[in-house]
Amino acid sequence: MGSQVSAEALNTKLPEMKGNPPPECPMHNKDAKEKNELKTKPSECPVQHDNNINPYNMMPPANQQPAPDQPFPLPTNRQVSTIPRAMPDGSTEFWVYPSQQMFWNAMLRKGWRWKDDEIKEKDMEDIIKIHNANNEQAWQEVLKWEALHAKECGHPRLKSFGGKATDYSPRARFRSWLGYELPFDRHDWIVDRCGKDVRYIIDYYDGGEVDNKYQFALLDVRPAVDSLENVWDRMRVMYMRYRYEIIGDKKQNKLTN
Predict the structure, then answer these.
(1) Residue 85 CB neighbours (<10 A)
(2) pLDDT digit string (tens) for 78-110?
(3) How far is residue 89's CA from residue 49's CA, in Å, rounded to a whole number?
(4) What angle do CA 64, 43, 73 make, to 5 degrees?
(5) Quick one: where's region Disordered (predicted)?
(6) Is 166 exposed, middle or buried (0-12, 13-18, 19+ CB in 10 A)?
(7) Do residues 224 and 234 make contact, with C-beta atoms less than 8 angstroms apart?
(8) What residues contact residue 161 under an 8 Å CB cut-off, 6+ apart?
(9) Contact 54, 47 (CB under 8 A)
């Protein structure tokens, strides 16, 4: 669901890849019991609309057909995530990750030319794994914030998302003025909190080498400052983090003295 994994990020991790991979469909693991209670089903991502653009992820219809000059076949199977998706009719479906073939076609559409790189089948497999892990990580961070509202809504759902790689958030710009690096990508996610739309901003920073879980991004996830409730949530979390650090330091000092 982006989230999108930006071209810069993938070029850093897979030097032979160049281009602009497509937006991703976020993922979150929930237990089977909750799935059954929601009575949901997979939802295609992206989905075709009359204008050929899906307003929920700003992507055209899925293209599973091999490109004319493609050097090797790519799998078309898609992994169904367990992140609930809020539908216009109030029902819940699940976001579905793009296949390797969809990724390939999307990169071509963005201007990437595989002949300029030494692309291998294993590279596409790794990209999908990085893509999926990155989304799962982002959704887990969103759920930490949503836990503040667990009593009013026990099953938040992702409604829509979009990438804004070059539209840096105010916090990212401020950090850059202090000498820190700018994020390589940004997403805005709209979460349906039981009928209430809540916007989240996610800044993605390069965290170094890809680990054994195919994660490399450091995420800065927080509610957007566009409502008093979001501002209050951020103040609460800031206080809790500060209090935890102070208490943790005191306990550590007692143990070492």
Answers:
(1) 24
(2) 988 878 898 888 787 888 888 999 988 888 888
(3) 15
(4) 20
(5) 1-49
(6) exposed
(7) no
(8) 1, 2, 3, 23, 26, 56, 57, 187, 188, 189, 190
(9) yes
Residue 130, CA distances (Å) to 49, 114, 156, 211, 245 in order? 28, 19, 24, 10, 32
Q: Which amino acid is at 82?
A: T
Residue 222: what residue type? R
- The strands making up 92-96's β-sheet, listed across from edge to edge, are 41-43, 92-96, 80-86, 157-163, 185-193, 196-206, 217-223
Encoded tokens for 49: 């609309």
Phi, psi at 116, each rounded to 5°: -80, -10
For 212-246, how does the pLDDT look when each residue is reduced to its tens digit (9 = 90+)? Answer: 777 778 899 999 999 999 999 999 999 988 887 76
**How many residues in the chain?**
257
First-to-last alpha carbon distance for the chain, in angstroms, is: 49
